[in-house]
């Protein structure tokens, strides 16, 4: 997704800005907790859902790459039923759920219009480090009804804020994945040397 957000950012009110800063600080704190990766990611999904730009009706999945299966597997989710999760098998890193190759380094947004003529869509946010795919954040969101005939500058600015926030969340999750990988490598090397 091309970053067309230059000049569209709406100045956040002090409260919104502080809220987002608190959420980002909380994500960084979660990344340092000595808990399972799944628990960390679940906490981060809940933090993502607490942002002012994500609809409470949104569905969020976080996939991480599994070296053993060489597939992206759901490790945390929000607002999915067991039936919906069972219908989401692991996916090949060659192609993400949005149908784009994993080599795509940018976020992808696939807009849809639902039956009530409301804007909605699916974000695919790659979790990468040094161009290596570590995972994916998938956000399916029901939007608000568009107003007016032309583009809604406030809607687009809120979308840009959301996109920037999701990229920051992906970077935080990349740090968690890399830390987990480093810990596994240390454990493996220790066991070999013992």
Structure explained in plain terms:
With 194 residues, this protein is of the alpha+beta class. The protein has a single domain (14-193), classed as Beta-Lactamase. The chain has four helices and five strands. The protein has helices at residues 14-32, 37-49, 82-86, 153-193; strands spanning 59-66, 71-78, 108-113, 118-129, 132-145. It has a five-stranded antiparallel β-sheet with strand order 2-1-5-4-3. α1 (14-32) packs antiparallel against α2 and α2 runs antiparallel to α4. Residues 1-12 and 145-156 have low confidence and may be disordered.
Q: Which terms summarize this structure?
A:
five-stranded antiparallel beta sheet, 194 residues, Beta-Lactamase, globular, disordered N terminus, alpha+beta
Q: What is the 3D shape?
A: globular
Range of strand content: 15-25%
Tell me the number of structural domains.
Answer: 1
CATH class: Alpha Beta
Q: Strand arrangement, largest sheet?
A: 2-1-5-4-3
Helix content: 40-55%
CATH-defined fold name: Beta-Lactamase
The number of distinct helices, counting runs of at least 4 residues, comes to: 4
CATH H-tier superfamily: GAF domain
Q: Uncertain spans, ≥5 residues at pLDDT below 50?
A: 1-12, 145-156
Main beta-sheet annotation: 5 strands, antiparallel
Structural class by SSE content: alpha+beta
| CATH hierarchy: architecture | 2-Layer Sandwich
Q: Quick one: how many beta strands?
A: 5
Q: What is the N-to-C succession of helices and strands? A: HHEEHEEEH
Average residue-wise pLDDT: 77
Radius of gyration using CA atoms only: 18 Å
């Amino acid at each position: 997704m091309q970053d067309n957000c230059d000049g569209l950012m709406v100045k956040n009110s002090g409260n919104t800005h502080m809220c987002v800063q608190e959420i980002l600080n909380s994500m960084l704190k979660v990344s340092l907790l000595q808990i399972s990766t799944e628990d960390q990611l679940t906490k981060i999904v809940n933090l993502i859902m607490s942002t002012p730009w994500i609809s409470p009706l949104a569905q969020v999945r976080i996939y991480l790459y599994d070296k053993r299966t060489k597939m992206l597997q759901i490790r945390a989710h929000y607002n999915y039923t067991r039936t919906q999760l069972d219908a989401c098998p692991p996916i090949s890193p060659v192609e993400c759920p949005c149908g784009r190759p994993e080599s795509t380094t940018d976020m992808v947004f696939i807009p849809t219009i639902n039956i009530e003529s409301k804007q909605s869509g699916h974000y695919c946010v790659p979790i990468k480090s040094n161009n290596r795919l570590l995972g994916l954040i998938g956000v399916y969101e029901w939007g608000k009804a568009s107003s007016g005939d032309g583009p809604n500058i406030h809607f687009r600015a809120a979308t840009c804020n959301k996109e920037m926030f999701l990229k920051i969340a992906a970077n935080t999750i990349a740090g968690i994945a890399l830390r987990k990988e480093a810990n596994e490598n240390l454990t493996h090397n220790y066991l070999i040397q013992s």
